[in-house]
Amino acid sequence: MGWFGKSRREPPPRSSLKELSAKGILVFHHTSDVIQAENLLKQAGMAIRVMGPPPDLRTGCDLVIEFPLILELEVQRILSDSRIQPIQTVPVQDTLLSPVSLFQTRDYGDYLMVRAANMKLTIHKSSRLIVNISGGGCPDVPWLADQLIGKTLDDAPAPQRLGKTLCGYALHLAWEEMHRQCPG
Amino acid sequence: MPHEVDARGLSCPQPVLLTLQTMQSSDGKEDICVLVDNQASFENVSRAATAKGWTVAATDQSSDEYRITLHKG
Amino acid sequence: MSWLIVGTVPRKDFPLTCGQASLKDRDLVVNGCVSPVVRGTPALIAAACIACKTLKLEPPDVLLCGDIGDGDGSSHIYRYLAETGLTQKPYTGLLFHYLQPDVDWHNRILMAIDALPLRPLLMADAGYMYVAKMSGYAASYDLFTPDVGELAFLADEKAPHPFYTRGFLLHEDKAAPDLIQQAVSNGNAAGHLLVKGKNDYVVAGGVIVDIVSSPCVETMEPIGGTGDSLAGVAAALIASGLHIPEACSQAALINRTMGLLASPTPAFAICDLLASLPTAFKYAC
Description:
Chain A has 184 residues and is of the alpha+beta class. Chain A has helices spanning 14-17, 31-43, 72-81, 140-148, 159-162, 166-181; strands at residues 23-27, 49-51, 64-68, 88-91, 103-107, 111-116, 119-124, 129-135.
């Protein structure tokens, strides 16, 4: 038995281990667990990445956390302290789907729109007021829009703190990019 | 005589935008009175005005309407 | 309109409720439960109600529950539908909208639909369209209304969510015809598609039968809910008796005309545009 008593995949033959980066993947039930785990591990200074799971690993939600295998015990401790349990851990052994990282920006004169994946965030440039959010299909999107629209970029909560789905996460990417393009 | 911004019937964030535009074109000598018809706009207008250095001098709520009096400084 | 529109409201305390929709000022009212029409499923329903009034149809029935992304409200909806909701009335159309994607529940509901004596027309948008594709049963649906990014997701046979759509250059709207063919050949398209974007593509049986490009109101893109209003109008037109391709073409034209009449800035909310929808019907039809 492996991590937290949950199932652990058998590692590939030793000869092919050399070809692997020394990385592992944490699989969770829910996107919100991934986002919480990402926050905790990043706060602890871990070099982790949130990525898409490989096609043959779809037991959990649609995000996995890639982490340095050498830090497995430390990762385990941090998550255990916060009662976040991955359902599976596997060494990296296949091409991962990477999250879309493309941004598209559109200038509407007094307004600026940034798109990340399927989410669009628009601000009034001179006041940096968030004026609109569009796109997405998960239920947290209209709720996030209610929380953000009408607030400035500085006053609005980071979508990552509130969102619970991939759409909310994509909105966070757009929000981060907007901050980068329109610093206060 | 205060400037009046009637933002009733407008969806967020338009009440905030109208208020900001009025503040921008104002010389600050007169108060601005903003009328909105929902709690979210009331909170957002108040917050935005405060961030721009205006004070929420008075608020008045009756049934579905909020009147916010803003004072420069 | 003997349709049922299913979706969520962005308020955790909004109860599970099923009944005929009505509009009061800028609010959606169902069985005394009130939700402001700002975006999302309430915006789709509002557009459908306004369209129904113009078309002299009864407004749709709706099944709603509050869900802010944790999936609880969606679970209530799924359970109700799978257990009893589909047999309450003989609906001729079902439109699924903002719901937390859940493949297992989706499949149970599709089985329940298959067991109905009279199969309703099935339409999906937003989160339910995502899960219809994820489940592998996209072809069981009669109409999807993706935007161009979501079309790329349908075309990508491996992407489990639009967030993971591979290699799609978001600004290349001209890629839409290729993506349509990929989605169709992968079996990840409904019988009809209404692809929303700079050009609105109407697709029937894998063939683009119409492209609606004007009026072109660029400030509609950043406004949340303009795709929802299009879906609501399309549903009402189908309910009025139009064939799906014709309904989609008309809906695209009406939605664009609504935008032209409203002359929005990117700061407008969809409810500001919906005020122009009745007039849009007159100009566009």
